[in-house]
Amino acid sequence: MGMTDWETRYRQGDTPWEKGTAAPPLTELMARWEAESAWGGGPVLVPGCGFGHDVREIAGSGVEVVGLDLSAAAVEGAERFEKIGAESYRLADLFDRRWWPEEGYGGWWEHTCFCAIHPSDRPRYAEAAGALVRPGGWLCGVFFLTPNDPGEEGQGPPFESTREEIIGLLEPWFDLVEDWVPETGYPGRVGREWTAIFRRRV
Length: 202
Ligand SMILES: C[S@@+](CC[C@H](N)C(=O)[O-])C[C@H]1O[C@@H](n2cnc3c(N)ncnc32)[C@H](O)[C@@H]1O
What we know:
Oligomer: single chain
Strand content: 15-25%
Bound molecules: S-adenosylmethionine
Low-confidence stretches: none
Largest sheet: 7 strands, mixed
């Protein structure tokens, strides 16, 4: 099973996921949510942040945000943007426990990280979230559930998923608080994504 070489894809500009703006469902979430208090007091971790559009969108609400990516080209690209607030970027593999800060995070924002990792690594994603989000903190995300055309399933990234699978993976640590199908999205994504707000059990 081949793992995606994200660094090469950034270096070659082969980044169809890169849309130049924050994910519209994040803007939608922040409009209906009292973001600053809701992010558990921060900091917020954005795993697989790419060029950091979502990081800067969240930083605009005044909370501290850390964008994480394992591609140096992605982190370098993110760092080239003008600073909005208390955002920073970190070059690391989400699954590498050596960088996991003991104090954890108050919030987690997911967007096209979960669907980018191989399905066999999903339990590791859930373990990282359980370890890194503080009790009482929040895991929010927009999950791209049906990214493939008919017949292309399983050949990602992006890899498809279901609401039930994600709830089940996070269940050892997180309760689902609220979820909806976003009304906004990048062109072609509306109706194929799922926004969810989970709370880390105390
Ligand atoms: C499909 S891209 C999405 C990037 C960004 N969220 C966006 O929408 O523009 C997936 C990102 O996750 C990063 N990534 C994949 N596996 C990772 C891991 N184990 N730890 C950290 N980042 C990872 C990749 O380098 C890539 O930037």
